Amino acid sequence: YIPRAQEITLEDLKDLTFLGADGRGVKDLSGLEYCSNLQTLILTNNSITDISPLASLTNLQNLGLDYNNISDISPLASLTNLQMLTLSENSIADISPLASMTNLQTLGLYDNSIVNISPLTSLTNLQTLILTYNSIVDISPLASLTNLQELHLNNNSIVDISPLVANSGLSNGDYVLLFYNPLSDTSSNEYIPQLRDRGVSSSR
Question: Which residues pair with 166 in a beta bridge?
Fold first, then answer.
């Protein structure tokens, strides 16, 4: 916390562990690279396109970048301590930089331009995954995410949900949202009942 009407020094920036600037018209993140001890950074609902200043903030555990104009997330690849990352309502197609974030427990990617989710295969600590409103067809990478408890897949182009049946971790108390997908008859009539028999709540 930095009091108002006080000149901000580099030492002040280094002391920051939390910074929130939701809906403040932020466009330029220059200078944030000096906030080297930030653990939580919330920059939702701004006009951000370039997130390269975040690449050095390796102490970040929680990062909110929803509702911006971000398409390139490669600067985030170094943020391997992240436990929560939300990038919903952006213009992201390539999520390969997320593959190194093996500590992630919560990942929000609602309403982007994602087709390929294979980079998620390594994120085995994920508990909450939100992929609503994308263009996803193949969900086979989700079979290995056995810690998932909450999975949002609605409004995609998914036909085959057999990878969810193959996910041995989906069980009693977990839930999966599947509505507004062109599910096959086999997915609707066989796989969803199998998930429900295991105690998984499934909406379609």
Answer: none
Give dist(CA 62, CA 163) in Å, integer. Answer: 29
- 107 is a domain residue: no
| CATH code, 55 | 3.80.10.10
Q: Which domain holds residue 47?
A: 1-85
Counted domains in the chain: 2
Q: Is residue 186 assigned to a domain?
A: yes
Quick one: tokens of 67?
């509702």
The CA distance from 98 to 84, in Å, is: 12
Q: What is the pLDDT along the chain (204 residues), one digit of tens a residue?
A: 445 546 778 888 899 999 999 999 999 999 999 999 999 999 999 999 999 999 999 999 999 999 999 999 999 999 999 999 999 999 999 999 999 999 999 999 999 999 999 999 999 999 999 999 999 999 999 999 999 999 999 999 999 999 999 999 999 999 999 999 999 999 999 999 999 999 999 987
Query: Which uninterrupted H or E stretch holds 194?
Result: helix 192-197
DSSP state of 20: E
Nearest-angstrom CA–CA distance, 131 and 76? 19
**pTM tops 0.90, yes or no:** yes
